[in-house]
Amino acid sequence: MESFLLKGIENPNSADINFYIEQGGYQALPKALEIAPADVIDMVRKANLRGRGGVGFSAGMKWYFCSLNKNISPKYLIANADEGEPGTFKDRAILEKRPHLLIEGMVIAGYAYGAEYGYIYLRGEYPKAKVILNKAIEEAYSKGYLGYNIIGKGVKFHLMVHQGAGAYICGEASTLLESLEGRRGHPRIPYYRLANVGAWGKPTIVNNVETLSNVPLIIQIGSEEYTKIGPSKSPGPKLFAISGHVNKPGLYELPMGTSLKELIYTHAGGIKGDKKLKAVIPGGISTPVLPADKIDCAMDFDSMKKAGSGLGSGAVIVMDETTCMVKVLWRALKFYEHESCGKCTPCREGTGWLRRIVERIENGKGRDDDIELINDISDNIRDKSFCPLGDGVPIVIDSMLMHFKNEFEEHIKNKGCSLVKT
Amino acid sequence: MLSETAIKEIDEIKARYPDSKAALLPSLYIAQKEFGWLSPEAYVAVSTTLGIPKATVRSVGAFYAMLQHKPMGRNVIRLCTNVSCMILGAERLIDFLKNKYGLEDGGTTPDKRFSLVIMECIGTCGNAPAMLVNDDSYGDLTEQTIEEILAKYS
């Protein structure tokens, strides 16, 4: 597959606007501005562009809902660049090496449903990206791709960078808006659709960076051609970020639907040091872990759900036979405990309790009824919190205990970990 | 009080939002840079400049992991220990930093040259184990390369 999202990133000038234009960039934008806004929404909807942040909701549908707020202005577009799902580093490549692809996608999106102001909510841990984005935005303004009268077509879109400061929960859309507006990162009760009541009470779309970066491609080749890239219900080029015990960790642009096995063995060079594969987390830490014999699945939203896991952010973490799954679960729980915003008691307290129990098990102080206790606490978090961070915890626990329960039982029985530590 | 330059920068930032309270997080970054950390003084300065109650300013500042609430060294090492970095040896690097530099999570070297903050995922998993030193990102770390990297920072 010819690369689109990562086209030209080996070139040190890839973030430059002149390089982007030479590559054929900023050609989708004038084309889109010749199409009626409602038809642009229709194109993106028919292309089945699904949110690349991890949930996979139809971007076109979201834009459509937002566009229904006809007499309310201003409308906002937020590029979610808070990439914080452990294992994920795909948006970073676009932000640092192809910022104009994102900018072009954002202007087209804003035009489609009527947003005049855009913010890139950028995680604090990407300081280099802030400098690159600010420069790219300045370049885009100077060439008329942003501003009050974009390429003379009377379309207005202003874009600014807003930097986060180290909070995974701010990657959740409603929480992002809270943080943007100058508050602590607590999610909003999901009563109002953000498309209707979002930033500062106005209709707002929050789209992932990679999602927006697909928009110029859809405009260029049309929705029908786009749905031919991978499975038609979950199409498009996808950035797979693969890490862990593989020979060639890194970012790979491949069609949606590429097999997880192919990704690990053909593209990422197989398992390091010829060790045996033990487990794979396929879509970032909040997706169910897959044991080594279950990696014959297609990496697209629907296939991964059928396979008992999830595409998530497409962040693949590969673990070999030297990995202690109890320790991995402990680290995942430590992450959730740290990142829990504290609003909901089950999540705030439960993550800590779970982490301490698994820590005891890892350190040889596990008790016979610990697994039952873990399931009980997990049950009391599931469906009992405002936001998906709470839901992520039972997902991880369930899948770990489903596939690796014996490891936990052995830790308890043998008072510790019997694996050789790396 | 914040410097004139800082106040001017904050004024510019306020203009980017329909509600100036959205300038709070950017202002906290500016104050942290100017005061070295978010001291009580820094909070008063931000509160005064933006006209936001001190309690609110403190409450927001306390939420975010990259805002510092004690004096930091001249260079801040942010080392990741999340799953990909952990299974590729991040914990050995923590031991190394402790033994060689006397650094622990949240601590600062006696000569104030380095501070260490243990991080959640910093999005450098393809080059795990990884760290940030100030605004610079480093991956594929070993004890040796960490030493070479840190030698560049005074």
Describe it for me?
The complex is a heterodimer of chains A (422) and B (154). Chain A is of the alpha/beta class and 422 residues long. Chain A has three domains: 17-226, NADH-ubiquinone oxidoreductase 51kDa subunit (Rossmann fold, 3-Layer(aba) Sandwich), CATH 3.40.50.11540; 238-320, Ubiquitin-like (UB roll), CATH 3.10.20.600; 325-413, de novo design (two linked rop proteins). Chain A is built from 16 helices and ten strands. In chain A, strand 3 (147-150) and strand 4 form a beta hairpin. In chain A, helix 3 (37-46) packs antiparallel against helix 4 (59-67). Chain A is globular. The model of chain A has no long low-confidence stretch (mean pLDDT 96). With 154 residues, chain B is an alpha+beta fold. Chain B has two domains: 4-63, Arc Repressor Mutant, subunit A, CATH 1.10.10; 75-150, Glutaredoxin (3-Layer(aba) Sandwich), CATH 3.40.30. Chain B is built from seven helices and four strands. Chain B has a four-stranded mixed beta sheet with strand order 2-1-3-4, with no helix packed on it. Chain B is elongated, with a radius of gyration of 18 Å. The model of chain B has no long low-confidence stretch (mean pLDDT 97). Chains A and B meet through strand 4, strand 6, strand 10 and helix 13 of A and helix 2, helix 4 and helix 5 of B.
